[in-house]
DNA sequence: TGCGAAGCCAAACGAGTCAT
DNA sequence: ATGACTCGTTTGGCTTCGCA
């Protein structure tokens, strides 16, 4: 079974605690070394050459020892240089070298390995398999202002080979320009998925959470003028039932409410026709079935591969396939033209299928042509720009599992999710585009809040930079930052402060800015003390700042960037599933969309994730809300939205917990703690928005209901220590499931339960009625904070 | 009478099963 | 082997109830 690859980084300011002959690995990084404390390490430099270095342990510290001096000498590493190490596993590291100008060290790209002899061959020979399957940091497609890396033969060779690269290869890069060169309609970027990552996240052992995470990430990084949705291939997609569910939202918008044939066109131009069958009683949701298998096989789609379906015209979807599962160089390189692909695929297919496929395709193409002739208008770019975002948002779907399987899967999912984030970090760093590095100084993270772009770096690209650039943090969220020129020096100015605050950057933190050529920087962040990546930076949410940087004259307009995917809250209610946007832990961009209602047009303020709606409840009635354990907080946010609340609490007072958003790590910890506290008799629930706000309904696992509760409505007593709350268990007879409703709200509010908190419910006195459930709360953010009411005028 | 909370139906969708 | 259909869970939203 394939295994998830983690690519954690650490950074070293040379010389820090190490000497020229030995380099200490940050203590915090040791856990990423797969338990290895000795052995030979392979350091792969920017030149593509590798150095063998001995890993030694002294006391509790690990060092790069013998051979390190060679690396230092060959790279002309000097005092004040920065080295960034990416662990690709099996003690193989990719190393980037930055000089004192904060830019990548030119010499490092041209240096050769002075090591030689049998030891090198032995070690490299052992590791060759892995290395070969790995991708150098510089192996991306050439796109634009890229550093010259003549000596990086590996890279050049690849590029040369891939000159005719099909879309798939280009999609595997992060350059928009690369895409544009192949398809003018395509301006999008997409997450790099190297063929080396033996990710098998989805389906084959992957949890829905991880798949959801990944789908969303892909959706975020993909941009298209057409509507699209993202699907990660699960086992049932490529075997078993051989079907693929089309997101409801997408089906509603673009597919008829009847069985239809859809043409799937891969990026090489080859087409397949599949049946799309409405699967719900009201025929609104579609499933791809007949013919889908043919597409899967012809395109050698594997479990874990990521498919992006672009609605390029009526009844036609262009499919981008990102290979994540099993690798085949030919597949990925795109060297094979469409004909080759078809022929090869055909050879592997039953004749029956091949015949059917081509036949149906021909038929469908006629249909498509007919549609065109009838005046089917090309999609309105503006319209579908939004639609695309909608579609992206609907790529996320709820997970559903049952009982222990669900819990086990969720644990696995959380663990994998953490690993996945590191994978993301690795990917985000894996670029051949110019980078620079900056250690945060006082004025960078306070005072004037400016950051100087290294002159050497600025000299190369400033002509291409507009007044505003975008910074994409490890979380995938984008910040607009102004660029101010002062002579030959460029500064991040307006907006930088917000970026700093949102990432809680402090003095001595180290940031790597990777320019991708589109006025856009990917930023990696390292903790100044541990020199390891700032884990929290991956889970940052953009704050709804109550005050904008006063120097900024304008706020960023919504939908301004083509890269971002906004989870449009206008999907809430009538059009979509608000919870799916709000709920999602990995939402990358706070919704700032104007929201209109078919029913009402109340001015509402969209709160951050730590805000929840607490409609006045019985226990509050008669009380002055301002006395409710907290002073009234009047939010002075500056963004107003027309929002429709479809949940009936438009006029409800809204409260903010004042808590910061929880990080994924914290959520995982809470989950694991709760899991450990859980006994066979109990059940555990991680609070979702609908549990602790809005609907205040908590479903109880069906298996547990069947075992412990009668199939009827009944009261349940929730108990913490000696304090009790009465809640109502509602049983859905026709659906044989149920959950807590009446009274549950009081429990939630009285205990300040928040989203992502985990509750363990253990039955006391089994058999007695009403059932008493002892509840243990595991808070994702410690120290419950009393709710703070938000001024009604502002939401 | 108006509004919020409670109650509950049914849509949506992932995933598995079963018929062909 | 294939593909249509069904099931289980989550969640949106409508209706009813009760209080001020």
UniProtKB/TrEMBL annotation:
<keyword id="KW-0539">Nucleus</keyword>
<feature type="region of interest" description="Disordered">
    <location>
        <begin position="569"/>
        <end position="589"/>
    </location>
</feature>
<feature type="domain" description="TF-B3">
    <location>
        <begin position="436"/>
        <end position="529"/>
    </location>
</feature>
<keyword id="KW-0238">DNA-binding</keyword>
<dbReference type="GO" id="GO:0003677">
    <property type="term" value="F:DNA binding"/>
</dbReference>
<feature type="domain" description="TF-B3">
    <location>
        <begin position="8"/>
        <end position="101"/>
    </location>
</feature>
<dbReference type="InterPro" id="IPR044837">
    <property type="entry name" value="REM16-like"/>
</dbReference>
<dbReference type="InterPro" id="IPR015300">
    <property type="entry name" value="DNA-bd_pseudobarrel_sf"/>
</dbReference>
<keyword id="KW-0805">Transcription regulation</keyword>
<protein>
    <submittedName>
        <fullName>B3 domain-containing protein Os03g0619600-like</fullName>
    </submittedName>
</protein>
<feature type="domain" description="TF-B3">
    <location>
        <begin position="229"/>
        <end position="325"/>
    </location>
</feature>
<feature type="compositionally biased region" description="Polar residues">
    <location>
        <begin position="579"/>
        <end position="589"/>
    </location>
</feature>
<dbReference type="Pfam" id="PF02362">
    <property type="entry name" value="B3"/>
</dbReference>
<keyword id="KW-0804">Transcription</keyword>
<dbReference type="GO" id="GO:0005634">
    <property type="term" value="C:nucleus"/>
</dbReference>
<feature type="domain" description="TF-B3">
    <location>
        <begin position="683"/>
        <end position="781"/>
    </location>
</feature>
<dbReference type="InterPro" id="IPR003340">
    <property type="entry name" value="B3_DNA-bd"/>
</dbReference>
